[in-house]
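Pasting as-is:
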Amino acid sequence: MGFTLPARHARGRVVRLGPVLDRILAAHDYPPAIRHLLAEALTITALIGSLLKDGDGQLTMQAQTENGIVDLLVCDYRAGELRGYVRHDAERLAMLGANPSLYALFGQGYLAITFDMASSGERYQGIVPLEGGSLAEACESYFAQSEQVPTLLRIAVRSDRQGAVAGGLLVQHLAEGEDGRQRLHVRMDHPEWEHVAVLAGSARHDELVDPDLSLEALIWRLFHEEGEVRVLPGAPLTRGCRCSIEHYQAVLAKFPEEDRAEMRNEAGLVIVDCAFCSRLFEISA
């Protein structure tokens, strides 16, 4: 769900993931720390992806490192479809405590956020060091450094026997420039932004993951003192692994025949392992 605060030149997005989060996490037997990390990443991806004005565009968030316990985390969003995957070293992870820090998981890494615009075919990518206490803080740095947009992110994750729930809030200051005009007053200490950041920063963990608190009610709690709050409907979220035999056949068709011959097994099939949904596809190529 989106919202704007016209008098403050601010916009925001709020999201809550329930069953769709469980479906994505169930693809692999992730340990608790990795489940929490992926839940946070999926929530951030849904928030940033919802900023796309191109309905068929795609947002991809990737965190990668060398020799880290987590050497790859990738999530993407397209038209309400969400998917994600984490590759990690289970043995090294087991040596850490129950709540490892971002640095303990990744070490020296980087965060890449890529916007693919389907309508124009253009691609925009920003890369920043993977620093801070959480993925949310790293993404705030991305917007500050690569987009020069003051941004606040609040993410909450809760897991119990009933499943996982994650909620997130994103707020940005786009002074005079949300609709394509030149952005003016890009300052992290702008009075308008400081005011909005204080209100948004008051969002509590329990509010973000409370299924009995509607997203509209959450927005009202945070910004009810503003003169005008415009609420925008959001797209429903679904698990969006787009793998299929037809898709892989089309990909393999781009390889020379001699390369496809090396890929085939004794039965003449190419076995493709989709990391996102943990399925094996037998492709006749």
